Amino acid sequence: MTRTVIGIAQWLPTCGKPQQNLCDALSFVDDLANRGCDLVILPELWPCGYDPASLARDAAGAAELLSGPRGEALSNAASAHDIWLFAGSVPERDGDDLYNTAVVYGPDGRLQAAHRKVYLYTPLGEHEVFSAGTEPTVLHIDGIGTVGLSTCFDGDHPAYARRLHDLGARVVVAPCAYEVAAESWWNILYPANALANGQWWVMANQCGGELLGMSRVIGPDGSIIAHARRVGDNTDSELLVVTVDLEEGISDAQRTAGALWADPPAATSAAPPVKRSRANTLRSAPTAY
């Protein structure tokens, strides 16, 4: 039995204060690593904060190349603590384009994955700020297997979760800036994704103002294993530490719910005749005028 210690940092970053936010993030990483976490997860767009009214200005002001000073600081934090650092998502500058990019650093400090958010949330104008990514992203972690990346609204799409499953991901890490107004989606869609695909979902959310909090770990059976507080229940930052047996949860899900993602039986060579209802075979009666 191999247990994995997961640490999630939930807080409300300050809009337009990227250096302060970086200092806070590194402090949370230090704290979680010192508590024995193997994986540390930060939320979506923590460098710039998330206020739709100022997102364009805030994201542009916090944008860097992934190889810039922020990336170097995150790399150093991962290697200093010998952890897998799922460093949320950051505003990535690439030429004239700006992306909402989730980044992952390995225990050696190397950038192991960079996922550009595919589904930008148009109701809050994200498509006017960022360019969209084109495909899901997975990476391999020894002792865990294939891990998928899903940034906030990506995971609201069941087909995206299934695509990650088809790519081999039975663990999904999801940095989010999920709003209170969509709380019912948070509570319904993600347990359903986990159950329908036999996946662990590890979700780090911002918390404060209009942002929901309730960061959580969802098991492959759709149950909520642990969660942080909801906005309104707590105004402070919160560090959630959860110890789980990822392999056991995946094995149990395969045994009890594997029919949900199994391939359909092969079609027989002779297809059965199509049964047509009487209503579909009758001609229309002439219309009297």
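^ that was protein a. below is b, sequence first then the tokens
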Amino acid sequence: MTKTVLIGCGNSGRKIAVSGIDIVGFCDLSIDRAEELAKKYGGEAYSDYRKMIAEKTPDAAFVCTPPYCTDEILMCAVHSGISFMTETPVTRQDGKGKDIAEKIRENGITAAVYSELYYSRLMRVIRGFCKKYQVVQADAEIITPPPAEFWKRDGDLSGGILTEKGTDILWTALNLFGEIKNVSAVSSRGFVTGIADYSTDDCFSAVITFSKNTILNLTLGSYGTADDGLKLRLYAYGKRLEFSGGEIRVYGETFDPGKTKKMLHAGEEIPDEVCADCLVYRNDDITPARAFINALESGKTDSLESYEDGLRVTELVREINSKTVRV
């Protein structure tokens, strides 16, 4: 069994902790948070990640820390020969990401990027839809309440709303629609008021065209009343796919139960429910953390979104940010 540690015990860290994997150490600047998870899931609590790595000698680490302090932790993991999974954006400092990527190659470790959608069964459904049909237009939206975390309220620490909310969406779009051809983006602030030290845009909108001739309309906002996660709609001629709340509905398709075996043999996904107007697909139990551990233990790490993949899209987001019109 792969022995792992968790660095960062906030909301993202808690998602890792419930994945049912073997975590021997929990680290957070707030020792109370680390102790809470250690008591609940087993393992030992730390407030110093270096001490935890030295004492626990893990095989892998999950790094769920704010992007402004992640580079130092990742470099420590790399120098210790520890494989890791981290969140996007993978770096906030120019040049640091390339240094980390170089050390990853030199030390031959596995470095992956966390993504709620990328490793799920629903991503296979989305890929199948895009392979079968020419997707003309895609609409992606994440609207949440104003951020509670201090670093998300600070544009310099978080990188801004596109960096914080849109990096994973852009990586998904690159996988589905090819390279970016053109971007037109605007952002603004002023909707969110009455929050101290709030210095980031609270609205972002972009129209992005891709090499497969798909147009993506991307909308991000921090002015909502609830966090409903990503909402995604893909449009093809006479077909539509809608993703929301861990479920996909495909309109304009039919399902023949007699072809189930043939579909399974071809690697196609079987719908969980057949409605009068759509096919419904629901998520499986494979979390990103479990997908990472499975890849390490099977040696099939090509299935992972690599650190270099994350670095590439992080740099792309930085470029889009530099061209965004502030209104």
